[in-house]
Amino acid sequence: MLNWKIEGHFENMKNKLLSPLVMRSAGTFLLGVVVGHITGIEGTESGEAEIENRESSERTSIKHRSSVGASASVFGGFASRNPRGWQHAAVKAQDSGDVVESDALLLVLVSEWAKRDAYAALAYAGTVPNRSDLVYEALRQMAKQDPNEALEWLAGGAISVDQKNYFMRAVYAGMASSDPEGALGLLEQMPKGAQRDQLVSLTLNEWAKHDIHAAFDWLETAEMTPQFSQIYQEVMGRYVEQDPEQAAGLVSQMESGDMKLNLASQVATKLADQDVHFALEWLQSLGDLEKKYALLGVMDRWSAGENGDDALNYLLENYRDSNNDELFTVVAMNLSRTSPETLMKSFSSLNEFERVTAAQQLANNLVRSDPERGLQWIGSLESGAAKDQALKSSLAFYQYSNVSHAFGLAETITSPALRQGQMREVMETWMSVNPAAAEQALAISSVLSVDEKEEMMRQVYANHRVNDYVLPAKQ
Predict the structure, then answer these.
(1) What is the pLDDT of residues 150-189, one digit of tens each?
(2) C-alpha distances in angstroms, 144 versus 26, 126, 201, 302, 433?
(3) pLDDT tens for residues 400-439?
(4) Residues whose CB is less than 8 angstroms from the CB of residue 396 and which lie 6 or more positions away in sequence, other chains included
(5) Furthest-apart CA pair in the chain: how many Å?
(6) Listed residue (452, 450, 438, 388) closest to 418, CA to CA
């Protein structure tokens, strides 16, 4: 028995959730057009004139209906006039020369077909090689309509244990969307174990999408199992997505531990999407470890958004403790992509660790987005660890786009150990494409002694392997 009870029910919750029917409308509308195109010539026995008249009629009616109604009409009208149309469309899609297009279209076709004739769609799906996902989707749709039929198919099918476990998920996924209480009732009759817990989790997650409080009510009286904690966390994760402020109140009341740690981070991140200052205020109620991970989530969202410079300023003004390095790394990674100027302007005020981290992130992104600007900025840095790390980051780009330039950059690194390591890496790449040029560049380098050059060449040759790239014979 859980020791808490969610107070109150939020009647407007359903209005906040996007209806699955609406979510599918755009996809099914497009599929209706595609089905008409695929079956346009061979889909009926009445010839092209009838097909064009029907498609014209559908298009005219579509203009005066919502996308949901329009898609249903395209599919329903097509299927009612031509029962064999779905299979014909599926075969056409299967025979497409574009594998990616065929795979994607088949899945949607089978899903829509199964809504109208689950047995036929399921029978067809079973004939497509290496497409158990099609069987899964057809079986899921069947279970939505008639769970008993889906369970009978599963019991009578000549399938392996692994396949049965996979398709069992399809059945309960379908049942969960139409009758979650009934599905959970059946699951309570199953033997205890990992499979039952997995199916309970799947069913509860589906239920929580539509009625989170009903899912929690079921959990409150559910039997404790080894997997209960994981199941609870998954439902709580759904609650965080739906109502982060209410979830925050519950998480604050939890005892410290891994569960609270995980959920606190989720809550803080979600709150930051809505109001970063509220998120910062809320996480002050947490313990030190929970606060650390929650703050990482908040700073990640904040620095990646439109006000990333505010995130940096807040961090520099408020956090100079053991967590600062991790927090700054997250902020620097985001700002180097979204607002590099902010990092550049703040560079002189950063401490040594922060300058090195900022230099790495800025160089990594600048040389890819604007190589000339990136090199100019690196060149403006004072010699030292920050500039060395910026040069190292830039080599990851130039080593494969301009290897001779990369070698020259590597020579300018001030740290002897880092310089030799980077020069050797560039040499190994260069030797694969132009060994003569690589050897000449090393020979005239002024930053290595003769002994260091000889040792580097020995290491490069030891690591270098001649590859025999086998190609097929021409037909």
Answers:
(1) 999 988 866 788 888 899 999 999 999 899 999 999 998 9
(2) 21, 19, 18, 41, 59
(3) 889 999 999 999 999 999 999 999 999 999 998 899 999 9
(4) 364
(5) 86
(6) 388
- Nearest of 375, 380, 374, 463 to residue 426 by alpha carbon: 463
**Which amino acid is located at 341 in the chain?**
E
Task: In whole angstroms, give the CA distance from residue 108 to residue 142.
Answer: 15
Alpha-carbon distance 6 to 31, whole Å? 42
Residue 170 CA to residue 163 CA, distance in Å, equals: 11
No. of helices (H) and no. of strands (E), the chain: 28, 0
* Pure H helices in 44-98: 48-62, 67-81, 85-94
Q: What is the pTM of this model?
A: 0.69
All residues at 6 or more sequence positions from 66 whose CB lies less than 8 Å from its CB, including other chains: 25
How far is residue 256's CA from residue 395's CA, in Å, rounded to a whole number? Answer: 45
| Cα atoms in the Cβ-side hemisphere of radius 13 Å centred on 149 | 14
CA distance 335 to 265: 21
Chain centroid, CA 192 distance in Å: 32
215 to each of 84, 133, 201, 259, 305, how far by Cα in Å? 41, 28, 10, 19, 34
d(C-alpha 147, C-alpha 182), whole Å: 10
